[in-house]
Design goal:
The chain has six helices and no strands. By secondary structure, the chain is mostly helical. The protein has one domain. Helix 1 runs antiparallel to helix 3 and helix 1 crosses helix 4. The longest helix has 35 residues. The radius of gyration is 20 Å and the shape is elongated.
């Protein structure tokens, strides 16, 4: 039975990671402007292009709002259906992705297995996020199967 719990925890970890990373990516990428779009906005003299840029900026604002509401709903669902520990693991997964995401936005270079090993700086923050990535799985197992909800009166 413990093997089944471990396997369920691993699958659930990857589901949490997928949802957390994508929701955070939607929110954070929308907070920064697209430099190519800003450059096109400064150079153009055509009304049609200016209107399309305004539509894009308005859509980005709505997407940010939807992403924020999605994150709030996602965290509420993890708390409602499981417990505060699972919610904390979901938040930790989001926080461990944030430095790499900000680095991608700053450099304009997407990370994959090859580029992250070669070009991302190996500072203390890198090792902390690596530790959190590894520590989130046993924490998730604990919070799913051994943590009892404590209610304060």
């Amino acid at each position: 039975m413990i093997i089944v719990h471990i396997l369920i925890s691993i699958v659930f970890y990857f589901i949490l990671m997928y949802l957390s990373i994508n929701l955070l990516g939607l929110l954070v990428r929308g907070l920064f402007t697209n430099p190519e779009l800003d450059k096109l906005k400064a150079e153009t003299k055509h009304d049609f292009i200016e209107e399309e840029i305004k539509k894009t900026e308005r859509a980005d604002k709505w997407l940010n709002l939807i992403a924020l509401l999605g994150i709030i709903g996602y965290l509420y669902a993890t708390f409602h259906f499981w417990n505060i520990g699972v919610t904390a693991v979901a938040i930790v997964i989001m926080l461990m992705r944030l430095p790499a995401l900000l680095w991608e936005i700053k450099t304009g270079q997407e990370l994959n297995r090859v580029t992250s090993a070669l070009s991302m700086p190996k500072n203390a923050l890198h090792y902390i996020t690596l530790f959190l990535t590894i520590a989130a799985l046993p924490a998730l197992y604990y919070f799913l199967y051994h943590f009892q909800n404590v209610y304060f009166i």
